User: Fold this.
Amino acid sequence: MTATEQVRVVLVDDHDMFRAGVRASLDAHVEVVGEAADVDGAVEVILATRPTVVLLDVHLPGGGGGGGAEVLTRCVPVIGETRFLALSVSDAAEDVVAVIRAGARGYVTKAISGPELSAAIDRVAGGDAVFSPRLAGFVLDSFGTQAADVAVRDDELDRLSAREQEVMRLIARGFSYREVAGELFISIKTVETHVSAVLRKLQLSSRHELTRWAAARRLL
Amino acid sequence: MSPSTTLPGAPRARLPLRRPPGNRLLGGVCLGIAAHLDLPVRSVRIMATILALGGGIGVLAYVFLWATVPTGDPAAVAAEQRDPALARIASRGQQRWDAERQDLWSNVPVRDILVGGLLVVAAAALVASRLGVTIEWSWVLPVLIALAGVGIAWSQLDETERGRWLTRAGGRTPNVVLRLAGGIVLVLIGVLLLVSQDMSGSEMIPAVVAATAVLAGAALVLAPWWLRLGRELSEERAARERANERADIAAHLHDSVLQTLALIQRSAARPGEVTRLARNQERELREWLYKDRPAAGTSLAADVAALVAEVENTLTERTGGDESVSIDVVVVGDCHPSEATSALLQATREALVNAVVHGAPPVSLYLEISEQAAEVYVRDRGAGFDLDQIPHDRFGVRESILGRVQRKGGEATVVSHGDRGTEIALRMPLADTNHKQSTTEERAR
Assistant:
């Protein structure tokens, strides 16, 4: 999907001021088709409008008290066509892991700039994953950075491959996907493939650090 | 001698009636009364003694108060009874009420004297009976047994006493139950002995059965009332806990957030200063909300966070508050700080300053701590510099960043990515021993 193509977005956040700020800072090709301020409202709007991307706050009132992760679990029927990008002020690992494991395609903090956010929306709309430096840091922290933590086989879910580890490390160092590609002499497409693979592992792995976070949030 | 916390001119609220745990002679009743009425403890004690000697009314009153007045520090209880929101936010005007420390009487072993007195009385009674005075043993013994039982059962009200018993017994035994059961058995035996003096065995059994039946009936009637009382008590406790929590949050918001907002309004004309204040506040709140703060000197990750905060603050001040300085930090792993890491930290600091002052934002810091080494990457988006072109007499990068790390056996490199900015990479080998097995576990909590 090219950057100029229209992207339909639903904005879910319980702060009106924040929603207004995001709406104003988004690029022209990003069209906000709906907004919601709590879990129930979000599920309703998402199921009604079927947007391409949902910008989802991790901490949401209402519903069963599960926040953003609850919206994701209740939107399972549309999760194929609608992609979720989690947005949070929280750095807490359990928040991040909760929404990612519930199916979000990316995680950015609310300090992100307008153009960066638009780019992240495009990337998620195109089916790729969006990792902020901090999320990459979480991944490295939970999957380990030692040589012994490197996956031997491709289908291993509990360990990152050497290349994935490298990509994560560069993203954590503040490199953009383009810069990572340049640094490792690979194409951006390959970087995106690696990041998507890491996202999949993050969602499906049974590494105990991840499962414990998930268990703590009653996601299992 | 009196615990005087009264401020001149400020009428002080009366302290609630409680028996303070420390400095007691017997059960702390006089101490509590003294605190409650704001009288000297000694005069209260003398009064009580006079009352006790004069007809025994003092003894009755003492026992009654000992049984009904709960244990506790009066000042602490008073502070608790105030609205918790007020108690936390406002500074505490009330000082802690301390029983006087240097009490002349506190060294007197009252318990031993009491036991001794009892023995003397018993001996006197024995001597008297030998001398021909008829003592109604059939009355005295049962009464004594019943009194002992009552004493044992009621003494569990005395919480300090209970603590002492528990520690003596190893702390695990179901002492309360034991004591209650023992007390009941003793009282029953005493009462039965009293009542059944003139009865034969065959008359006694129906009487015992009848008494038990009455007791059971009373227990059945009173049970729901007791249960409700207990439930209400625990509910009240939970509500108080919630209120305390809310008060804690309110106090924190008041101390930090409101202050910062006031400062921000004052310096609204200086965007850099506003950003700095906001970032500082954000960092503090985040730490307060999300983290179990590690003890000082045990976490390199925490040290790095503090270092970044310090650099951001200093540099924002240096620009006069017109420009904001922000550094993105990502830390993976953690370890105990050591001499090597402190050199690494100092070099990191210089690298950050260098990146902010000479480079272009955004500046990011990545620290990865593994078992073998700690690696730091400081990156900015400036045009960069060529290390070889820096004169050898300039100390900046060469000495304070690269030299520092290399002297401690580390590696340091400066990589210029051209238009993609400059990156300083520092690597410091770590001794295996001080590595903490990744922080993911602590963070997960």
Remarks:
- The first strand of chain A starts at residue 7 and ends at 12.
